Amino acid sequence: MRKVLIFSTAYLPFIGGAEIAVKELTDRMGDYEFDLITARLDRHLPKHEKIGRVNVFRLGWGGKFDKFLLPGLGLGRALALNRRQNYAIIFSLMASQASIAAVFFKIIQPAKKLILDLQEGDEEEHLKRYTLGSDILYNLLIRPWHLMVFKKADLIIAISNYLRLRALANGAKCPIEVVPNGVNLEKFAISNFKVNFNPPAGGQTLKLKQELNIKETDRILITTSRLVKKNAVDDLIKSLKYLPVNVKLLILGHGPDRQMLDDLTRRLTLENRIIFLGQIGQADLVKYLALADIFVRPSLSEGQGISFLEAMAAGLPVIATPVGGIVDFLRDGQTGLFCEVKNPESIALKVKIYLADKDLTEKIKANASELVKNNYDWNLLALKMKTNFEKIILES
């Protein structure tokens, strides 16, 4: 059986779109065995464990600094593992600290095929935080390593056309394929989602509404977001000032902006209309989507936007901004509604359109569900990924 070595700066139980993608794809690629090198980041996590079909090797002492040690520690572990496993493919998840280890490995083992999987939702400007915003230090210490993985890759797989163009801008000369992230259709019950809630499940939804003090007359907006600048949750909060008082907002996720968003909520006296639920596991996410009316995320940037597709699969109409990879799947008035970037009034206007026009809402929901079912099923995307793996192995 052919073996693949994955380099990823973070991995489960740390949950993001990229980490979920690895789990979903590897679960469906039975022709391959997978080892994964990552930063430990939490001292309570085991140094080695098997998650699904992936052998996970966590390196470091269990703190945030582990990711900066990963290029060196990751290279050493990769060389040791390769002596036993003789990997067919080296797979770098995103251009990050782990990708530096992958590049070092590629330099030492030039015959190994390196695939770079681009998943980044942040603009590259966010990398400057590692040099305290200094352009000089960034260009000296970060950018050369960031660019090297684009130049050393034998194949780049981007989850959106936006990231394909970013790869070209960063000097990529190798073939670039677009393979988006997908949705677990069984988990999100794409086929007639609302009806799929049988009486016991419907009872759970009613109980959840009662726990959250949601009334029958309330209209619920929901966002599932890291609480960081790029997801513009502050603009979504501000939009409530332009909406009727029975419109409430559920915010799922955590992040460094939480305190700022709490303060903003109090300053706008919206405490009775906004519920912060923190990080919700994938297994429970669908329960919260079930009780919502509209999904909204007014992103400033987005690598693809898997949360939108999950909401579409769950039967929710979505509101988004026309940025990054979102434009690959959202057609204004067909599979969702676009609002303007950094414009709370525009968000509110789109919410009002959904609430006022039931026929349009139902049309958009049906179109979006069909789109996800036909184009973003993990089973189909795993086949595409296997095709790319086999193609690059044949070139070896």
Entry keywords:
396 residues, Rossmann fold, 2 domains, eight-stranded mixed sheet, 43% helix
Give the secondary structure arrangement, pairings included.
Layout: E1 2-8, H1 17-27, E2 32-39, E3 48-51, E4 54-59, H2 66-85, E5 89-93, H3 97-108, E6 113-118, H4 135-152, E7 155-158, H5 161-169, E8 176-178, H6 185-188, H7 199-211, E9 219-224, H8 233-239, E10 247-252, H9 258-267, E11 274-278, H10 282-290, E12 294-297, H11 306-313, E13 318-320, E14 337-338, H12 344-356, H13 358-375, H14 378-394
Parallel strand pairs: 1-2, 1-5, 2-4, 5-6, 6-7, 7-8, 9-10, 9-12, 10-11, 12-13, 13-14
Antiparallel strand pairs: 3-4
- How would you spell out the order of helices and strands? EHEEEHEHEHEHEHHEHEHEHEHEEHHH
Quote the CATH topology of the largest domain: Rossmann fold
Strand content: 15-25%
* CATH homolog superfamily of the largest domain: Glycogen Phosphorylase B
| Spans where pLDDT lies below 50 across 5 or more residues | 190-201
Shape: globular
Architecture of the largest domain, according to CATH? 3-Layer(aba) Sandwich
Secondary-structure-based class equals alpha/beta
Cα end-to-end separation: 16 Å
CATH class descriptor of the largest domain: Alpha Beta
Mean pLDDT: 91
**Count of the separate structural domains:** 2
Helix content: 40-55%
